[in-house]
Each structure stands twice: as structure tokens, then as C-alpha cells.
Amino acid sequence: MKKITVKIFETINDFPENWNAVAATNHFLQIPYLKVLELSSPTNMQCFYIGFYENSELIGVSLAQYLDLNKLESFGERDNCFKTFIRNFIFRNFASHTLFIGNNMITGQNSFTFNKEISFENISYLLTQCSEELIQFFKQKGIKIHLVSFKDFYQDCAVEFKKFAFDKIYEFNTQPNMIFELPSSWNVKEDYYNAFSKKYRDQYKRAHKKFEGISMKELDLDEVVLFESRINELYHHVAKNAPFNTFFLAENHFSTFKSQCGNGFKIFGYFLEEKLIGFHSVLVNDAILETYFLGYDDQVQKEKMLYLNMLYNMTEFGITHQFKKIIFGRTALEIKSSIGATPVMMSGFIYHSNKLINRFLGKIFKKLEPETFWQQRHPFK
Fold first, then answer.
1. Are residues 99 and 188 in the same domain?
2. 165 and 21 within one domain
3. Residue 90 has pLDDT above 70, yes or no
4. Measured distance CA(267)–CA(276) in Å, rounded
């Protein structure tokens, strides 16, 4: 292996011409999606785009995100308790400047891709080199990075990284990624319904009965722009009631996403008496369908089982459009398992710049991470 060098870009305008060709295996490292981040990233986030070169040839790309948590309006308002107060105090005072190698806005192994075979050993050292160069970049600006996190690796990758550059970095596992591997024999939504056991067929019928009176339609760009204020209102309602947040989407995020990615980004509106009462969005990543942000009116959600119906609709969209799997992400684990998704453990790696804090990071992290108790459901015959 010849020596691989790292080049960090602050703007997409400086990219080499073959960036997209090198990033061909992952849409979330290609220019249309990265342009969305550049034009509509959260107000407390700055993105960096990383090229890996062998001699003068671009052979791989990566993404990094800097988050200034001092600019965050709220870490999440669902859990109003002393533990949450302590957690927020610690984050604001000891972890307010955080660097992610990877994408903190989506779930999955999207932090790097190469157009040739590169060993896990080499990748692990390249990713740590990226973090070190960005730490120096911020140091020159008078900003000290508190936390560095390498985000979302499947277990085969994490095990290998741990053998090399990540051997002394704390590995953490938070909530699993809920993934639905769709059987190739399913072609229509009736195949999905017929696979349920009686209990979950009854749940499906009950949810659809509650859903009566609501219409769903895919929104084009003009409609996303027209409804964007309401979309943001619905998104913020759900986001603020999450147990923990490190960012909130920019107000122009959804329209920017639709204008840049076209059919690669789909947003569906839910209407009751012509009023938008919810939406869900999905990302198309070749044969994989990735669920993205959603929002809803809480009163309608409770009455109409809106969230559960959204999950059914995403699944049926995946089936009828012949996706191989749907990535549902880390929230609402139990209800997602009830529609067929199964948990897949993912690892991250994290360290603190303060050596004393870093020494006890494992114990601190376990105390701060909100505990989630859930029961996996098995809905199929």
C-alpha cells in the first residue's frame, strides 16, 4: 500500500471532478446530499468533507461534523428530571465543542467509502488522522474540541478498528439500529399483511380503521416550499420531545433537500380536512430505503394512531418499490419491532480531550445515556 494522504475541504466548490465517482457506493457521501448539508445544516453545525489520496489520485471520501452545543436551544424536553439537568449541565460545560467523524444526522455506517480495497487497519488510522487535523484546525481558531466521536460502525468493522487505531478509544453501544430486511418474495402490501400472526393482523386492521379520514400524498418541491413552515412546526414538536438532541434542522432543510436530491428524497404529507397534520420522509440509497425525519400533531397522532400508520406506509412503500431493506433508525424500538424491524447493534468510539475525564469516560457515559427498556416484538407467523 502506497502512502495515503488526507485533504480536508470546507466547501464543495473545491472538490475534485471525480468525487461522485469515488463515492458511488454511498449516496450520503455524494455531492447532491453533501450540498444539502452545506446549504441547510443546523445552525450549530459545520461540515467538513474529506478526501483520501494515493499519490495524486482520489481513492476515498469521508465526512466530519463540528457541533457547538452552546448554540443549541434545547437538548430535549421530554425527560424533566434531575438526571437530565445534570446531563445537560455536563454537556454544556465539558462537551460543548464536539467533533463527529461521520454523520450525526442519520443512522448507519456512512462515515467513509473507498473505490478500492483498503484494509480496516488503514481506515482506522486515516479516520483518527482526520480527527487530529481537525482538532488542530479549531485550535488555530481558539476553539478547543472537547469530545471526538467516530460514529456508527457495524460490528464486523468495529471489531477490526478496535485491533488498530481505536484500541484505546472507548467503544459505546447505544440503542440498536432497527432494520427491516424485506423478503424478496414480497411484491405487494398484501404479502406483508398475510405474513402477520393474528395478533399483528388485528393491530394492522385497528390502526387502519383509526386512520380513516386522513389522506396521504407525496409532496413535490413546490408543495414542500408551500407547507415548509407547517412541516417545521410538526418536526419541532417531535424533536423537542425526544430524550436528547444535539441539533435541530434548519428551517429551509426539507425544501433544500428536495431541490438538491429530487426523487432521492421523498416527503409524504398527511392531511385531515385539508390541514397538514403530519409528514414522514425517506431517503433512497440504491437498494436501501432509509427513513428520515418526521413530524405530527400530537393530538391527531394519539387519536388516529398516526405514527404506527406512518411506519406501515414506509414499509409498504419499500415492498412495492422492491427495496432490499429499510433502515428505521434508533428511536421507538418496540413499535418498530411490531411492524417487522429487528435490532442491529452498532458501535461508536468516543474520547475526551481532558485526560482525567477520558479516563472515566466509560462510567460517565453510562450515567448520562438515557436508559431505554423495551420488549422486542415478533409479528410474523
1. no
2. yes
3. no
4. 13
Q: Do both 259 and 278 map to the same domain?
A: yes
Neighbours of 38 (CB within 10 A): 18
Residues 6+ apart with CB under 8 A from 142: none
Nearest to 284 by CA among 230, 330, 325: 325
Q: Is residue 112, in this structure, part of any structural domain at all?
A: yes
Pairing of strands 147-154, 97-101: parallel
pTM of the model: 0.91
- pLDDT for res 84: 56
DSSP annotation string for 166-216? TTTSEEE--SPEEEEE--TT--SHHHHHHHB-HHHHHHHHHHHHHTTTEEE
Q: How many domains does the chain divide into?
A: 2
Residue 36 structural domain:
4-175+346-368
- Contact predicate 243/198, CB 8 Å: no
CA 317 to chain centre: 20
Tell me what pLDDT residue 7 has. 97
Report the length, in residues, of the chain: 381
Categorize the per-residue pLDDT at 246 as very low, low, confident or very high, splitting at 50, 70 and 90.
Answer: confident
Which CATH number covers residue 352?
A: 3.40.630.30
Helix (H, G, I), strand (E, B) or coil at 70: helix
Cβ proximity of 119 and 164 under 8 Å = no
| Residue 84 or residue 106, greater confidence | 106
325 within 8 A of 288, measured Cβ to Cβ: yes
Residue 4 and residue 123: Cα distance in Å, rounded? 10
Same domain, 208 and 104: no
Dihedrals phi, psi of 109, to nearest 5 degrees: -85, 85
Alpha helices in the chain (DSSP H): 19-22, 31-40, 82-94, 120-140, 155-163, 189-195, 198-210, 221-240, 253-261, 298-304, 306-320, 333-338, 355-359, 361-368
pLDDT for 175 equals 86
Confidence at 79, pLDDT banded by 50, 70, 90: very low
Burial call 50-71: b when 16+ CB within 10 Å, e when fewer: bbbbbeeebbbbbbbbbbbbee
